[in-house]
Amino acid sequence: MSRTPSHPTHWLSATSVLAAALAATACSKPPAEAPTAAAPQAAAPAAASDHAFDAAINAADFAEHVKILASDEFGGRAPGSAGEEKTVQYLEAQFKRLGLKPGNGDSYFQTVPMVETTADETTSLKLDVKGQARELKFGSDMVVGTRTGKSEVKVDASDLVFVGYGVNAPEQNWNDYAGVDVKGKTVVMFVNDPGFHGQDAKLFEGKRMTYYGRWTYKFEEAARQGAAAALIIHDSEGASYGWDVVKNSWSGAQFDLPAKDDPEPRLPVQGWITGDAARKLLADLGQDLDALYKAAGKPGFKAIPLQAKASIDLKSQISEKSSRNVIARLDGAKRPDEAIVYMAHWDHLGDHADKGGHEGHGADASAAAAADTIYNGAIDNATGVAGILEIAEAFTKQTPPPDRSLLFVAVTLEESGLLGSKYYVAHPTVPLNKTVAVINLDAMPVIGKARDMTVIGYGSSELEDILKTVAGAQGRTLHAEATPEDGFYFRSDHFNFAKAGVPALYAKGGDDLIDGGTAAGQKANTDYRDHRYHKPADQFDPGWKMDGVVQDLDALYAVGKTLAGNEQWPNWYEGNAFRAAHDKLMQPAGK
Predict the structure, then answer these.
(1) Is 486 in contact with 14 (CB distance < 8 Å)?
(2) Which of 206, 299, 462, 542 sits a CA distance of 20 to 30 A from 213?
(3) CA distance 429 to 526
(4) Alpha-carbon gap, residue 545 to 563, rounded angstroms
(5) What is the helix (H) or strand (E) element at residue 155, kind and residue range?
(6) 216-235 b/e with 16+ CB inside 10 Å = b?
(7) Under a CB-based contact definition with an 8 Å cutoff, are residues 196 and 322 in contact?
(8) At a CB cut-off of 8 Å and minimum separation 6, what does 131 contact?
């Protein structure tokens, strides 16, 4: 899976999930011995802080962590870079400062093996359209990559087939691949769920995106069908982000788990094409893009073979590397074998200077040299990492100490498809059937206090009952995300735990702001999405309103404090797709 647009548009997130997504992954693997980290790379020491941290969760401490992690010195925190070394050193130093134990045996690190693939961006996609040659350029017309780990992958004269939304959902009585053999062919499809563009509430879950709507699923299904390549037609509404996000996310080094650590089927070539490129291509083939949106969103849609062939010679630089999850532990006083996990991803998109950010001539050269090429990832997700550090400090000072253990996990490779958390779930340092709950912090809002909290995937688990009580004491209410069609539930690391059955909570401040109401909150969300998400402008700003995020961290700490001080084992609500996985996970051995 290539680097992903993981949780864009705002501080909110989404949604429901379907049982079919659990078929291969509903239950965790037996606990495996987790590897310790390899020898650290040579790098300058992590930035030290002379800030005097306080025991209580507060804005000054939170800001200090974000400011350091999102600094240019950390280079955008790309996995495998010098920025990773600075990041994991900083996290280890902070965990040691707090007196937390290593969370992976005698190490704070869990090595995550990865394959780094960097596609040659001079690559073009050559098309034979009714005997006429066409060419799509990397970046401006399309982006492609490979998950094979091979330095050269060729697709030669592969027939194009339009497969609607690329969904095979038996429980929905829907199969876009019915009656067509796509082995060795190139499938072209829409993003999101059937019915989305036609706003048909009767199809799938209506406005709410299911896992079938995620681009990750679509590539997985195309691989299961035997396709040689797959291309998703981009549209901003369906994807919930613009082409610039796709281009930025798929450019440069892409990371994946080695095939032996991730046995899911893989396509030789996968990628996206712009809506404009797709519209022109289809028009040349006598097809109308708008008409296809309507046709593909109706039950009984049949795949359409296109009178075109695709060829590509994709050369990539391949290297096997590793990255690291950082794990710390606070032992429980009475039931140390049971743990609550707080999690955030530390990685971001790195420095894109090597992608031409400093190229140019004359006046253009001066402008290019001044261009900011570092994707600092302040909101995404230095805020989440700062949040678990603040919560960890609160637990270390708590009196009486927690009965259950607390695990603080800063995972890598979230931007590459939730790979760090995926690896952890396969190699947990606390068995999953002893993991009481997971609380995920990702892209925390810094827009001021709100009257509400947004629960991504609202209505999922009994963890919400605890949060409802906590939020109520703060004078706040809970609600679902504003844009369930965006499918944010599937874009952050809690999802891997959820698929394994572990109850997971992903919540953050809402958008009904004390200062300005929902209009101000929505304006701030839109501004972040349009101007900072996955862009160099996602930088620390001392002008942030951090009283709201402190309130959010207090609430999330209180949820864990409640669980760590009692014997409750929360479950998913009845009817939730993950409940069966949890029930199976918690069965006594041998049953």
Answers:
(1) yes
(2) 462
(3) 39
(4) 30
(5) strand 152-162
(6) bbbbbbbbebebbbbbbbbb
(7) no
(8) none
* Among 30, 112, 110, CA closest to 431: 30
Joined together, the tokens standing for residue 61 give 């401490």
331-360 pLDDT, tens digit per residue, is 999 999 999 999 999 999 999 885 543 333
- 227 within 8 A of 183, measured Cβ to Cβ: yes
90 backbone dihedrals φ, ψ, rounded to 5°: -60, -45
- pTM > 0.90: yes or no: no
Write the single-letter amino acid at 382. Answer: A
**Polymer length of the chain:** 591
Rounded distance between C-alpha atoms, residue 18 and residue 173, angstroms: 14
Phi, psi (deg, nearest 5) at residue 94 = -70, -40
Q: Are strands 477-479 and 504-509 parallel, antiparallel or unpaired?
A: unpaired
Q: And the tokens for 271?
A: 């990628």
Q: Which residues of the chain have pLDDT under 70?
A: 1-48, 354-370, 590-591
Omega before 58 within 30 of 0, i.e. cis: no
Residue 585 phi, psi (nearest 5): -60, -35
Residue 417 Cα to chain centre, angstroms: 6
Helix H or strand E segment including 504: strand 504-509
Report d(CA 89, CA 176) in Å as an integer.
Answer: 48
Q: Is residue 115 a contact partner of residue 320, using CB atoms and an 8 Å limit?
A: yes
Q: How far apart are CA 151 and CA 315, in angstroms?
A: 6
Rounded Cα distance between 288 and 285, Å, is 9
Instruction: Give the pLDDT confidence score for residue 48 in this predicted structure.
Output: 59
CA dist., res. 288 & res. 295, Å (int): 10
CA-to-CA distance for 429 and 106, rounded, in angstroms? 11
Q: How many CB atoms lie within 10 A of CB 122?
A: 9
Q: Which residues pair with 158 in a beta bridge?
A: 310
pLDDT at 358: 32
Instruction: Give me the amino acid identity at 552.
Output: D
How would DSSP label each residue in 183-224? TT-EEEEESS-TTTTTT-TTSTTTTS--GGGSHHHHHHHHHH
**Structural contact between residues 413 and 384, judged by C-beta atoms closer than 8 angstroms:** no
